[in-house]
Design brief:
By secondary structure, the chain is mainly α. It has two domains: 114 residues, no CATH class; 56 residues, no CATH class. 54% of the residues lie in helices and 7% in strands. The chain has ten helices and two strands.
Protein backbone atom coordinates (compact mmCIF):
# COMPACT_ATOMS: atom_id res chain seq x y z
CA UNK A 1 0.00 0.00 0.00
CA UNK A 2 2.93 2.29 -0.65
CA UNK A 3 0.83 4.36 -3.06
CA UNK A 4 -1.54 5.22 -0.20
CA UNK A 5 1.35 6.38 1.98
CA UNK A 6 1.14 3.58 4.55
CA UNK A 7 4.93 3.38 4.90
CA UNK A 8 5.11 7.09 5.77
CA UNK A 9 2.58 6.94 8.60
CA UNK A 10 3.87 7.45 12.10
CA UNK A 11 1.85 4.38 13.15
CA UNK A 12 4.39 2.01 11.67
CA UNK A 13 7.03 3.20 14.11
CA UNK A 14 7.12 3.32 17.89
CA UNK A 15 7.31 7.15 17.76
CA UNK A 16 3.76 8.04 18.85
CA UNK A 17 4.70 11.75 18.98
CA UNK A 18 4.81 11.76 15.17
CA UNK A 19 1.10 10.98 14.76
CA UNK A 20 -0.66 14.04 13.39
CA UNK A 21 -4.11 14.92 12.10
CA UNK A 22 -2.73 14.52 8.58
CA UNK A 23 -1.51 11.02 9.48
CA UNK A 24 -5.00 10.18 10.75
CA UNK A 25 -6.54 11.32 7.45
CA UNK A 26 -4.02 9.22 5.54
CA UNK A 27 -4.74 6.24 7.82
CA UNK A 28 -8.43 6.51 6.96
CA UNK A 29 -7.55 6.47 3.26
CA UNK A 30 -5.36 3.39 3.78
CA UNK A 31 -8.13 1.58 5.69
CA UNK A 32 -10.58 2.50 2.92
CA UNK A 33 -8.16 1.18 0.28
CA UNK A 34 -7.64 -2.07 2.21
CA UNK A 35 -11.36 -2.55 2.79
CA UNK A 36 -12.07 -2.02 -0.91
CA UNK A 37 -9.75 -4.96 -1.68
CA UNK A 38 -11.12 -7.36 0.91
CA UNK A 39 -14.68 -8.07 2.00
CA UNK A 40 -13.50 -10.07 5.01
CA UNK A 41 -11.38 -7.37 6.65
CA UNK A 42 -12.25 -6.96 10.31
CA UNK A 43 -11.42 -4.36 12.93
CA UNK A 44 -8.68 -6.47 14.54
CA UNK A 45 -6.80 -6.67 11.25
CA UNK A 46 -7.11 -2.94 10.66
CA UNK A 47 -6.06 -1.96 14.18
CA UNK A 48 -3.16 -4.41 14.33
CA UNK A 49 -2.00 -3.49 10.83
CA UNK A 50 -1.86 0.25 11.24
CA UNK A 51 -1.85 1.51 14.77
CA UNK A 52 1.39 0.06 16.22
CA UNK A 53 2.41 0.05 19.01
CA UNK A 54 -1.19 0.55 20.18
CA UNK A 55 -2.23 -3.13 19.91
CA UNK A 56 0.99 -4.33 21.53
CA UNK A 57 0.33 -2.02 24.46
CA UNK A 58 -3.26 -3.19 24.89
CA UNK A 59 -2.48 -6.89 24.53
CA UNK A 60 0.49 -6.69 26.91
CA UNK A 61 -1.59 -4.92 29.56
CA UNK A 62 -3.68 -7.99 30.42
CA UNK A 63 -2.74 -11.42 31.80
CA UNK A 64 -1.99 -14.03 29.15
CA UNK A 65 -4.75 -16.35 30.36
CA UNK A 66 -7.39 -13.61 30.11
CA UNK A 67 -6.36 -12.52 26.61
CA UNK A 68 -6.11 -16.05 25.27
CA UNK A 69 -9.50 -17.03 26.74
CA UNK A 70 -11.15 -13.88 25.38
CA UNK A 71 -9.92 -14.75 21.86
CA UNK A 72 -11.34 -18.27 22.04
CA UNK A 73 -14.97 -17.20 21.95
CA UNK A 74 -17.30 -20.19 22.03
CA UNK A 75 -14.68 -22.75 21.00
CA UNK A 76 -14.08 -25.70 23.28
CA UNK A 77 -11.61 -25.52 26.14
CA UNK A 78 -8.01 -26.36 25.24
CA UNK A 79 -6.14 -29.12 27.04
CA UNK A 80 -4.22 -27.61 29.96
CA UNK A 81 -0.82 -28.47 28.44
CA UNK A 82 -1.72 -26.48 25.29
CA UNK A 83 -3.18 -23.56 27.22
CA UNK A 84 -0.10 -23.43 29.48
CA UNK A 85 2.21 -23.40 26.45
CA UNK A 86 0.28 -20.53 24.84
CA UNK A 87 0.53 -18.59 28.12
CA UNK A 88 4.26 -19.32 28.39
CA UNK A 89 4.79 -17.96 24.88
CA UNK A 90 2.70 -14.83 25.54
CA UNK A 91 5.66 -12.46 25.78
CA UNK A 92 6.40 -8.95 24.57
CA UNK A 93 8.51 -10.46 21.78
CA UNK A 94 5.78 -12.80 20.49
CA UNK A 95 3.06 -10.15 20.83
CA UNK A 96 5.18 -7.71 18.82
CA UNK A 97 5.90 -10.40 16.23
CA UNK A 98 2.21 -11.24 15.83
CA UNK A 99 1.26 -7.58 15.40
CA UNK A 100 4.07 -7.11 12.88
CA UNK A 101 2.66 -10.07 10.97
CA UNK A 102 -0.69 -8.24 10.72
CA UNK A 103 1.17 -5.14 9.48
CA UNK A 104 3.04 -7.20 6.89
CA UNK A 105 -0.29 -8.53 5.59
CA UNK A 106 -1.37 -4.96 4.92
CA UNK A 107 1.90 -3.89 3.34
CA UNK A 108 4.66 -6.09 1.90
CA UNK A 109 2.63 -9.35 1.94
CA UNK A 110 -0.19 -7.63 0.07
CA UNK A 111 2.25 -6.29 -2.53
CA UNK A 112 3.89 -9.71 -2.99
CA UNK A 113 0.49 -11.40 -3.29
CA UNK A 114 -0.53 -8.84 -5.89
CA UNK A 115 2.69 -9.48 -7.86
CA UNK A 116 2.11 -13.27 -7.68
CA UNK A 117 -1.64 -13.25 -8.34
CA UNK A 118 -1.32 -14.87 -11.77
CA UNK A 119 1.21 -17.53 -10.71
CA UNK A 120 0.33 -21.00 -9.47
CA UNK A 121 1.89 -23.12 -6.73
CA UNK A 122 3.45 -26.01 -8.65
CA UNK A 123 4.51 -28.33 -5.84
CA UNK A 124 2.14 -30.92 -4.34
CA UNK A 125 -0.41 -29.08 -2.26
CA UNK A 126 -2.49 -30.38 0.67
CA UNK A 127 -5.63 -28.41 1.43
CA UNK A 128 -7.31 -28.93 4.80
CA UNK A 129 -10.31 -26.73 5.50
CA UNK A 130 -12.80 -26.37 8.31
CA UNK A 131 -16.50 -26.71 7.56
CA UNK A 132 -17.70 -25.36 10.93
CA UNK A 133 -20.05 -28.34 11.06
CA UNK A 134 -21.72 -27.67 7.68
CA UNK A 135 -21.78 -30.36 5.02
CA UNK A 136 -18.51 -30.27 3.04
CA UNK A 137 -18.62 -28.60 -0.36
CA UNK A 138 -16.23 -28.22 -3.27
CA UNK A 139 -15.95 -24.46 -2.75
CA UNK A 140 -12.43 -24.40 -1.26
CA UNK A 141 -10.91 -27.01 -3.61
CA UNK A 142 -12.43 -25.17 -6.58
CA UNK A 143 -10.95 -21.85 -5.49
CA UNK A 144 -7.54 -23.31 -4.64
CA UNK A 145 -7.22 -25.07 -8.01
CA UNK A 146 -6.89 -21.58 -9.49
CA UNK A 147 -3.79 -21.04 -7.33
CA UNK A 148 -2.31 -24.55 -7.10
CA UNK A 149 -1.70 -26.63 -10.22
CA UNK A 150 -0.91 -29.76 -8.19
CA UNK A 151 -3.67 -30.06 -5.59
CA UNK A 152 -2.72 -33.48 -4.21
CA UNK A 153 -5.52 -33.73 -1.68
CA UNK A 154 -8.35 -31.60 -0.29
CA UNK A 155 -10.01 -32.71 2.93
CA UNK A 156 -12.80 -31.06 4.90
CA UNK A 157 -12.61 -31.20 8.69
CA UNK A 158 -15.54 -30.61 11.07
CA UNK A 159 -13.78 -27.60 12.62
CA UNK A 160 -13.59 -23.86 12.45
CA UNK A 161 -10.48 -21.75 11.86
CA UNK A 162 -8.34 -23.48 14.50
CA UNK A 163 -8.37 -26.99 13.06
CA UNK A 164 -5.01 -27.92 14.62
CA UNK A 165 -6.59 -27.32 18.05
CA UNK A 166 -10.06 -28.66 17.29
CA UNK A 167 -9.04 -31.84 15.44
CA UNK A 168 -5.31 -32.38 16.16
CA UNK A 169 -5.36 -36.12 15.46
CA UNK A 170 -7.04 -35.70 12.08
CA UNK A 171 -4.65 -32.90 11.08
CA UNK A 172 -1.69 -35.03 12.15
CA UNK A 173 -2.96 -38.05 10.20
CA UNK A 174 -3.42 -35.97 7.03
CA UNK A 175 0.07 -34.48 7.41
CA UNK A 176 1.68 -37.90 7.90
CA UNK A 177 -0.14 -39.32 4.87
CA UNK A 178 0.73 -36.30 2.71
CA UNK A 179 4.40 -36.07 3.65
CA UNK A 180 5.12 -39.82 3.48
CA UNK A 181 3.49 -40.65 0.15
Amino acid sequence: MAEAGLFDLGYLTSDLDRISAEDMKRAVSVVTALASRSLSLTTIYIVNAIFGPFPETLISAVPAEWYLQSRRGSRRELPKIVSDEYARCFTSKTITGACRDYRAAATCDFEMDLADKDRQIGMPFLLLFGTRGAPPSQEYPTVWRRFASNLADAQPLPTGHYMQEEAPDQVHDHFVKFFTT
